[in-house]
Amino acid sequence: MPENAQQPKPETGSAAASEPRDVPRALISLIEQEGLKIGDRLPPELELVRRLGFGRSTIRETLKTWESMGVVSRNKGAGTRLIAEISTNTLRVALTIKHEAESLLRMQQVRRPLEIESVRIATRSATPEQRRIINARAAELMAVFEAGEDWRPADHRFHNAVHDATGNPLFRQFIEQIQKAFHDIYETPFGKPHLGQDTIPLHRPLADAIIAGDEDKAAELTEMIIDMVCAETQKISEEHDG
């Protein structure tokens, strides 16, 4: 489309809103209005631009995220097809427990080697100031957790401190992108906002191992944390299947 061309206007009554984060719900509304089922093809991107009123790049990014989460399949020449049921019951993509579990396990599979390697490098390379920050972030995390408050922001800050201590910003960027791809689809996996909270007590000895320079212990604890999240995910999936 030429740069000076006008952006297609959304149809009257479109589900579009002004924020990119509203693209998923607008797409879901269109899918429901059209009565599309698994195996059906979505309208072409240019038609979605016209009907929803969002930019083509924004719609394309949402469809890429859906593809990575197993919601749609995209093939050049064949278009975009639904491969999972979706709903607007809670104004988010609501896939089945099975799909949520598979998506989270895939994310952890990619995240595992990145987290373990970042912990090893941080243990070897962290400066005294970075070790002090890691210790402070661990103390903050444990205090919030023991107080029964929402520990997720503190957990995020702790892991960011570890990633920063590697001296390689790509660790933090890649891991955040992986997590964002998942959370763009699932606000609360399985309806559990605190999935993985049983791993929080392990973060204190993890910080201690990094500070002490015990690379193998830090890597072992990191793997244990990821294993626990995967085991919890698998258990929820199996209970649902049963």
Task: Quickly list its features.
transcription regulation, Four Helix Bundle (Hemerythrin (Met), subunit A), mainly alpha, 2 strands, TF_FadR/GntR_C, Arc Repressor Mutant, subunit A, 2 domains, DNA-binding transcription factor activity, 242 residues
User: Which oligomeric state applies?
Assistant: single chain
The assigned structural class equals mainly alpha
Q: What is the β-strand count? A: 2
Radius of gyration: 21 Å
Return the CATH topology of the largest domain: Four Helix Bundle (Hemerythrin (Met), subunit A)
Percent strand equals under 5%
CATH superfamily of the largest domain: GntR ligand-binding domain-like
Helical percentage = 55-70%
The spatial strand order of the largest sheet comes to 1-2
Distance between the termini: 51 Å
InterPro entries: GntR_C, TF_FadR/GntR_C, Tscrpt_reg_HTH_GntR, WH-like_DNA-bd_sf, WH_DNA-bd_sf
Region (Disordered): 1-22
Keywords: DNA-binding, Transcription, Transcription regulation
Domain HTH gntR-type: 17-85
